[in-house]
Hints:
Elements (H helix, E strand, L loop, with lengths): L1 E6 L7 E6 L10 E7 L7 E6 L2 E6 L4 E6 L4 E7 L8 E6 L3 E6 L2 E7 L4 E9 L2 E9 L3 E5 L20 H16 L2 H4 L9 E6 L19 E9 L6 E6 L8 E4 L5 E8 L10 E8 L5 E7 L6 E4 L7 E7 L6 H4 L10 E6 L6 E6 L4 E6 L5 H15 L5 E3 L3 H44 L7 H48 L18 H10 L12 H14 L41
Helix pairs in contact: 4-6, 5-6, 5-8, 7-8
Amino acid sequence: MKTSLQSSSLKSSQFIVLWLPDWTFNLGDWPLSIAVIDTAPVQPSIVVLCKRVLLCFTHGGTLRFSIRLQCIATALLVYNSTSDAYIQLCIATTTNTLLFYTDNILIWAAQLAVEPMQLNLCSFGTIYRSMIAILSERRLSVSYLGTEPSLFRLPASQTRFIDFHERQAEFMRLESAIRKKPSDAVSGVANHSALQFECTFTGLDEKSMAHDVSEEVPSLTVDVSITSRLQLNDVRLLCRTQFFAEQKYFVIGNIRDSYHLPITFYVKTQPITDLRCQFLLFSASNGELSSAEIKLPLILMCRATGTQRNVQYKLTFESSETALEVGDLMPEFEAEKSTSIAFQPVLSDSVVSIFVSPKSKRYRIQSDSLDELYVFAEELISRVKSKQPEVSLSCHVPLDHILQRLHIYLELERKRVSEESELERACIQLRGAQAAILAKLRAPRPASGSHIDALMQYSHAQLLASIDRVSRTEVALRSAASSLSAAFNLLQFLMLLNGKQFPINGYIVDCSGQTLSERLKWILSTMTRVDVNADLPSNELRSLIRNQCERCAPPMENIDEESDTESEPELESDQMINPFVSGSLPFARNSE
C-alpha cells in the first residue's frame, strides 16, 4: 500500500491521510474469510472465500484461479502439508461437507454429521495434524484426515471365500487395539511435532522473588526451553497451577531455533492443594501443539512444625514392606523424631502430621483439614515407591467425607442459579421503574410521581440486596470448589492406589461453562444408565458415585468365593450355537 499526506488548509494546519492502494478487485460476492500463504515453495498468494466462490490472487493482484461452489461456504482453512508448490485448502459448506482442493482441483470430499463453522489443524503428541472443527450444535470435533478415497469408481466386490472365525478373531484383535490408550497404541512412533519444549528447575531461589505477601515465603524459578524446527511468529504458552506467577499467559513473537523463558512461582493468594503445574504450548497458524506437566517441590508450599494427635481426618496406608523412616523420605525437612513429622502449609492454619510405624508396616497421615491430605499423601507415596519399587500399598477411601463436599458444592450451585434468576427479576423491575420515570418526564402535563419514586427506591434496594446475596454465594462457591477439587483428587489417587481406575479428578470443577451436575451426569452416563437431560438431585448423584466406587473396590484378600449355581450340562454338538460377540465399534448411518 502507498500512503501520502496532503495538507488541507494553512489556518487549521491539519493533515488528512490518504491511502492509495496498489490494486483493487471487485469480488462480486459477500466475503467470508481471507488467508495469506507465503511458505516456500508455494508462490505467495492471497485466498479470499466468498459465499459461492473462492478467489486466489498473487501479491501483485493477478487472479491465479477461482472456484465456483455449488453451495454456500461457511469456513476456510489454508494449510501446507507437502513440499510441492500447490496451495492446499479446505472449504466447509452448509451441506455438512468438507471440500479439499489442491489449487483448483478437488481431491477429496468428506461428509460431517453437523454443519462446520470454523476449521483449524492441531497436533496432540504423536497424533500429527488432526482436523479440528467448531460445529453448529455447540460442539468441538477432532478428526483424523485419513487417506484419499477412490471417488470415481465403486469398490470391487469380494468374490473370495471368507473364514468367519478368522474374521471374528481379527475384529477382536482390532477392538482390543482400539481400546488401548493413545500412548500404547502408537508406541514406537516418533513425535512429528515441530514445536517442543522442556521445563527444568534446580532448586529454590537463593533470594526469594516473592513480594506483597503477608509472610516470608520461598520462590522457585522454572526455565522453559522451547525448540522449533520451523520459524514461528505466533506461539503462545499457557500455564495452569495453583501457585502464583506474575504472568501465566505468554505470547512469543518470533522463534527461530530456540527460546528460553523463566517463570517464577511462589505462594501468595491461597493455600496450595495440588503441586502439579501444566504447560500448554501451541501455534495458532499451523496447529502445532505440545504439552508438559511437572510437579513443583513440596518445600515450596509448606514448612515443618510440631505434630498433632487429636485430629478429624486420618489416612492409614498398609505397606507390603518395612516402613521407611521419615529422614529417608523427607531429607529436606528437619524432623524431631525418625517416626513422625508435621507440616503447616503457607497461608493455612491447618497442620498435617505423618507417622511411620516400621513394625506394623504402616504410614498414617492425619489433619483437621481434608483439603490438605491429597498433596502430602501423593508426595509420601511417590517417595516410598521411589525407594521401594516393588512395594504394594493400600488405603481405605474416606468416601463419606468426599461425598459431603460434593453435596455442599451442588447445593451452593443450585442456590446460585436461583439467586441469579432473582437478580434478573430485580433488574427487570428496576428497568420498568426507570421507564415509568421517563414516561412521566415526557408527559405534557406534570403529574405527581411519588408512587413512581417509591417504586424506584424499592427496586433499587431489591437489586442491591440480590447483588449482595449473589456475591456471598460466589465467594462460598469458590471456597467449596477448591475443597471439592482437592477431595476428588484424593479420591482418584486412593482408587488408583488400590488398583482401580476412577475417571473423575479435581479438574472437573474448573474451566467450564457447564454446571458440575451436568458434567457428572455426562461422565456417569458413560459408565451406567443415566439420563443426561434429567434433573438429578445431589443425593442421587452421590449415590451413583458411591455405587461406581464400590463397584471398583478391590477384591477381598484370603477369601475364596465359590459360585452357588451348578454347572449346566453341555449341549450336544449338533445343538451348540456359537453366537456373535457384539462389538463396541460405533457406526452412523449416512442420511440420504
